[in-house]
């Protein structure tokens, strides 16, 4: 059996002397989509940050392709798109400037590809507008446009549906499902029930790992 | 290397679109200089003797003030997370960021300093030394301050703490910088001080990016 | 190479056990050394031919100043160990030692000022050593303030480690620049410690005091660390048993 793309072994997370979860096991292979759910404060964002290597677990280990995350930051960077609660969008820069910088930082993309990605998230005509004039939903779309560029297989998304309208939510759900069916993997948190799910979909309820 | 240049260009663009952030430390610098004659009296001789110290203390404080927000907006809008997760080495990215910040705020301060120093009565012959010492010293101030800014970026009220952490580390630059100016004022050669300042700059450029990167990783991982 | 022994060194339970055995020995050694050194130094050592009896304050000042400086170096070493090998015990040591170092710096400053009054005629003189000590005190304050400001325990320890390392690289630069500044601005004054060939009756008690201060430092550090380890491991069963034993509660 091949080792999964990302795997968490006996993971424990403690925040401010409060144990959020422990002995958490998770395996994410190609084609998987994992929806992390649980009540507020159950450690959903913390789990995502642990998986992305932004935080160190209190106990346990996260492995990428069978090797501990700490030893292969470079490999992780090549395989991962992380879109956090705050997505790294500067509001004085335009949508195009934001996106092209994020691409330069991770994986360079052509100007055409960037314009196509912005059009794909419904921002045609807003490419040159400073982001602070866009609505919250539109700003979120700028961040999500990264998902429409050719890129890494593993997506870790913290509340990607926040501020999106119904049509935007449906579009993103379909896009995520398609990514998984094409061999990608998605880990996300959201409070709503997904209408479009790929074959590899499952839910990880953090309230089942009580401290 | 291209990502370095791109980041410098991006930071320059950001700073140009929020010019107030650039202007505030300069105004602060001018006000602090203006405070001293009001506090110690307008006697020209006294002000001239004090001017090396005054210019340097004011420069140091205004650099410190401008650094408080160095990483704050990047931290709040999630940019730092993207930096940490990028395949490029973080020390290189922070070096670009600090460099861009210095080119826009530090350099402006260096250019403003001769004017204020002359208002304090510093003779024109001393201006080259003033410019050189500030040119060599302010990058060290920016880099060391960035270490403190990186460590305190996650804190709600980091400003005062930043000063507490970093001001003691500024002392060698203060001593060497104002020392160079005092030597020039007394007609002595200042090259020894300037060479020392230059070596501190080299040391800071090579070592502090690693400390800044470590600090940012800690703040992001909190 | 197998590093398990090194990580065992970082095990809180192991540390708690071994420190419990070391503590009485260190405390007794500190008491004896400081007691003998103090009586010998204050009562029996000959007075200085220039400074008279006021020189006797070196028996407190010098050990405190030495300890203050070596404590900062120890903080940086702990910082490196904590950052590189992720040893939690080094984090504990760093945060527990910082206040002790700050107190030692304060003691050195106060005794320096007291000595300065009869010698220089004023409580405070901008002497190179005193100024360096004052800056060291500020460095300690910064470290303690940073540790207190960050609520997350691990982040606080890591941040302090980075700051301590940056500080320790800076300390020699600060020290030399302050000495340079001092020689430029005032003539050499005679200092507290550098005097021509101190006789053995004078430096022997000083040596005892220095050793005593180090033992005292070790004992206080172990005490503080043991308390902190108990706090951190409060959920572990051995820690619960130990707390109940200390409180005299029979399970």
From TrEMBL, chain A:
Annotated CDD domains: ABC_CcmA_heme_exporter
Keyword ATP-binding belongs to the record: yes
UniProt-recorded Gene Ontology molecular function terms: ATP binding; ATP hydrolysis activity; transmembrane transporter activity
Record-linked InterPro entries: AAA+_ATPase, ABC_transporter-like_ATP-bd, ABC_transporter-like_CS, ABC_transptr_haem_export_CcmA, P-loop_NTPase
Protein's UniProt keywords contain Manganese: no
Domain ABC transporter: 6-207
Gene Ontology biological process: cytochrome complex assembly
Keyword tags: ATP-binding, Cytochrome c-type biogenesis, Membrane, Nucleotide-binding, Translocase, Transport
One family name in Pfam for this protein: ABC_tran
PANTHER family according to UniProt: ABC TRANSPORTER I FAMILY MEMBER 1
Protein's name in the database: Cytochrome C biogenesis protein CcmA
Organism: Pseudomonas trivialis
Automatic annotation (TrEMBL), chain B:
Ranges that cross the membrane: 22-41, 53-71, 92-117, 129-153, 160-181, 193-216
Subcellular location per the Swiss-Prot or TrEMBL entry: Cell inner membrane
GO cellular component: plasma membrane
Location, primary (coarse class): membrane
Membrane topology label: Multi-pass membrane protein
Biological process according to GO: cytochrome c biosynthetic process; cytochrome complex assembly
GO MF terms, alphabetically ordered: heme transmembrane transporter activity
Function according to Swiss-Prot or TrEMBL: Required for the export of heme to the periplasm for the biogenesis of c-type cytochromes.
Family as reported in the entry's similarity comment: Belongs to the CcmB/CycW/HelB family.
Descriptive protein name: Heme exporter protein B
Native source species: Pseudomonas trivialis
UniProtKB/TrEMBL annotation, chain C:
Subcellular compartments: Cell inner membrane; Membrane
Residue intervals of the Cytochrome c assembly protein domain: 26-185
GO molecular function, one term: heme transmembrane transporter activity
Keyword Nucleotide-binding attached: no
Biological processes annotated in GO: cytochrome complex assembly
Keywords noted in UniProt: Cell inner membrane, Cell membrane, Cytochrome c-type biogenesis, Membrane, Transmembrane, Transmembrane helix, Transport
UniProt membrane topology term: Multi-pass membrane protein
InterPro entries in UniProt: Cyt_c_assembly (IPR002541), Cyt_c_biogenesis_CcmC (IPR003557), Cyt_c_biogenesis_CcsA/CcmC (IPR045062), Tumour_necrosis_fac-like_dom (IPR008983)
Transmembrane segments: 21-45, 57-85, 92-116, 128-147, 159-178, 202-223
The UniProt record lists the keyword Transmembrane helix: yes
Function in brief: Required for the export of heme to the periplasm for the biogenesis of c-type cytochromes.
Homology family: Belongs to the CcmC/CycZ/HelC family.
Protein name: Heme exporter protein C
Species this chain originates from: Pseudomonas trivialis
């Amino acid at each position: 059996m091949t080792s999964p793309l990302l795997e968490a072994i006996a993971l424990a997370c403690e925040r401010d002397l409060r144990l959020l979860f422990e002995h958490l096991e998770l395996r994410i292979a190609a084609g998987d989509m994992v929806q992390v759910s649980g009540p507020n404060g159950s450690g959903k964002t913390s789990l995502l940050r642990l998986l992305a290597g932004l935080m160190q677990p209190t106990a346990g280990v996260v492995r990428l392709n069978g090797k501990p995350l700490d030893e292969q930051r470079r490999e992780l960077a090549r395989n991962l798109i992380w879109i956090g609660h705050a997505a790294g969008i500067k509001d004085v820069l335009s949508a195009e400037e934001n996106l092209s910088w994020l691409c330069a930082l991770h994986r360079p993309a052509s100007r055409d590809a960037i314009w196509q990605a912005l059009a794909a998230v419904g921002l045609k005509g807003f490419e040159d507008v400073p982001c602070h004039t866009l609505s919250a939903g539109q700003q979120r779309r700028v961040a999500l446009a990264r998902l429409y560029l050719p890129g890494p297989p593993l997506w870790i998304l913290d509340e990607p549906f926040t501020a999106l309208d119904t049509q935007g939510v449906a579009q993103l759900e379909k896009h995520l499902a398609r990514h998984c069916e094409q061999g990608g993997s998605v880990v996300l948190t959201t409070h709503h029930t997904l209408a479009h799910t790929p074959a590899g979909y499952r839910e990880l309820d953090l309230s089942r790992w009580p401290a | 290397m291209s990502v370095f240049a791109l980041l410098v260009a991006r930071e320059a663009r950001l700073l140009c679109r929020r010019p107030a952030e650039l202007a505030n430390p300069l105004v602060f610098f001018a006000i602090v200089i203006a405070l001293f004659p009001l506090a110690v009296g307008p006697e020209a001789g006294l002000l001239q003797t004090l001017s090396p110290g005054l210019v340097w203390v004011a420069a140091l404080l205004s650099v410190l003030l401008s650094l408080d927000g160095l990483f704050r907006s990047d931290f709040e809008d999630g940019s730092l997370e993207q930096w940490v997760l990028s395949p490029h080495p973080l020390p290189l990215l922070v070096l670009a960021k600090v460099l861009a910040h210095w080119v826009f705020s530090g350099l402006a301060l260096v250019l403003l300093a001769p004017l204020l120093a002359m208002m304090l009565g510093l003779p024109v012959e001393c201006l080259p030394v003033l410019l050189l010492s500030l040119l060599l010293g302010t990058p060290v101030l920016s880099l060391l301050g960035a270490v403190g800014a990186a460590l305190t970026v996650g804190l709600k009220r980091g400003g005062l703490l930043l000063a507490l952490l970093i001001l003691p580390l500024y002392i060698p630059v203060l001593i060497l910088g104002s020392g160079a100016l005092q030597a020039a004022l007394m007609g002595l050669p200042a090259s020894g001080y300037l060479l020392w300042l230059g070596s501190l700059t080299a040391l800071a450029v090579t070592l502090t990016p690693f400390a800044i990167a470590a600090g940012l990783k800690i703040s992001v991982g909190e | 190479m197998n590093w398990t022994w090194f990580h065992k060194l970082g095990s809180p339970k192991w540390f708690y056990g071994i420190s419990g055995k070391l503590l009485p020995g260190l405390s007794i050694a500190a008491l004896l050394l400081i007691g003998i050194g103090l009586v010998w130094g204050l009562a029996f050592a000959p007075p200085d031919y220039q400074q008279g009896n006021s020189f006797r304050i070196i028996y407190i000042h010098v050990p405190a100043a030495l300890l203050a400086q070596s404590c900062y170096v120890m903080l940086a070493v702990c910082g490196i160990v904590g950052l590189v090998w992720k040893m939690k015990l080094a984090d504990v040591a760093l945060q527990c030692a910082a206040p002790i170092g700050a107190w030692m710096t304060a003691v050195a400053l106060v005794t320096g000022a007291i000595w300065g009054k009869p010698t220089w005629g004023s409580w405070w003189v901008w002497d190179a050593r005193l100024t360096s000590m004052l800056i060291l005190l500020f460095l300690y304050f910064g470290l303690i303030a940073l540790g207190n400001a960050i609520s997350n325990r691990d982040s606080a320890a890591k941040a302090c480690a980075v700051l301590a390392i940056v500080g320790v690289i800076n300390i020699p630069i600060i020290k030399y620049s302050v000495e340079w500044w001092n020689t430029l601005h005032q003539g050499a004054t005679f200092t507290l410690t550098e005097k021509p060939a101190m006789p053995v009756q004078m430096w022997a008690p000083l040596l005892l005091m220095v050793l005593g201060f180090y033992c005292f430092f070790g004992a206080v550090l172990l005490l503080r660390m043991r308390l902190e380890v108990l706090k951190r491991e409060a959920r572990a069963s051995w820690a619960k048993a130990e707390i109940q034993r200390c409180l005299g509660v029979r399970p």
